[in-house]
Amino acid sequence: MKNNEDINNILFFKLIENSIFTKRQTEIIINIRNNNKRVSEISSGAYYREVKQSKTKLKKLYYSILLLHLLGVIDNDKLSTLNAIVNKLKLIEFNHNNHHVNDILRIAEVIEDMINKMIKM
User: Fold this and answer.
1) What phi, psi does 2 have (nearest 5°)?
2) C-alpha span between 18 and 39 (Å, rounded)
3) N or C: which end of the chain has fewer CB within 10 A?
């Protein structure tokens, strides 16, 4: 893969693959955030059903974060670790010309390792 967009997509799809959201739901969340029009590849009814499902998942995600924080499963150190990961991913996103597919795959593995360490209780 030589295309920079493909390199970014590898990491993006790895993140989606391990998230609670589908690719389409992720696209819908981005469209909602950016006030874009609905995705044209699906019917209006299917789109608005997915919008509702996406918003419900987001709401449950936020409540889950609050609950896990109150239970002590997620603490400030873990939130800081997640924030550091996000900041590094943003750097990669804006400097994708400097990264090769193998670098991106290694980054995905590091993220996986960090999250696995975080979930050990």
Assistant:
1) -105, -20
2) 23
3) C
For residue 61, the one-letter residue type is L
CB of 9 closer than 8 Å to CB of 93: no
Size (the chain), residues: 121
Per-residue pLDDT of the chain (121 residues; tens, 9 = 90+): 344 455 457 788 889 999 999 988 998 888 888 888 777 778 889 888 999 999 999 999 999 999 999 999 999 998 998 898 888 888 776 665 555 667 777 888 888 888 888 888 5
Give the largest Cα separation in the chain, rounded.
Answer: 45
Domain ranges of the chain: 4-119
pTM comes to 0.73
DSSP letter at 71 equals: T
